[in-house]
Design a protein that fits this description.
binds adenosine monophosphate, HIT family, subunit A, alpha+beta, single chain
């Protein structure tokens, strides 16, 4: 996997508004927020997207989802948030390092555009 903006954020080569970090993952506010709360949670392991993840990543992926909920709760949105991952270009993925979008603070339409 080649370097991305997100691997550079992990390496502290470019700045980000980091709100959580542990051994496995990093969370930071999206630079173009689509809701009052919009942060991304990414694995430190270089995984392109869910399609690229393997069964050995099960614990990591579960950890990221649980952390997403915990951080949303810390920000006052524990009961109502949207968790999204865009997997592949047609689905809207623009940064090819796995990330979960966590959004809250407004009503969301369904189906998504
Ligand atoms: P996606 O289109 O699903 O790949 O999402 C990529 C997200 O990364 C978009 O919501 C961008 O606004 C966000 N993004 C890109 N560069 C940065 C950055 N330097 N810091 C924070 N978020 C970023």
């Amino acid at each position: 996997m080649t370097d991305t903006i997100f691997s550079k954020i992990i390496a502290r080569e470019i700045p980000a508004d980091i709100i959580y970090e542990d051994d496995l993952c990093l969370a930071f506010n999206d630079i173009v927020p689509q809701a009052p709360m919009h942060f991304l949670i990414i694995p430190k392991k270089p995984i392109v997207n869910i399609s690229d993840a393997e069964s050995e990543d099960k614990t990591l992926l579960g950890h990221m989802i649980l952390k997403a909920g915990e951080i949303a709760a810390e920000q006052g949105h524990g009961d109502n948030f949207r968790l999204v991952t865009n997997n592949g270009e047609t689905a809207g993925q623009t940064v090819f390092h796995l990330h979960l979008h966590v959004l809250a603070g407004r009503a969301f339409a369904w189906p998504p555009g």
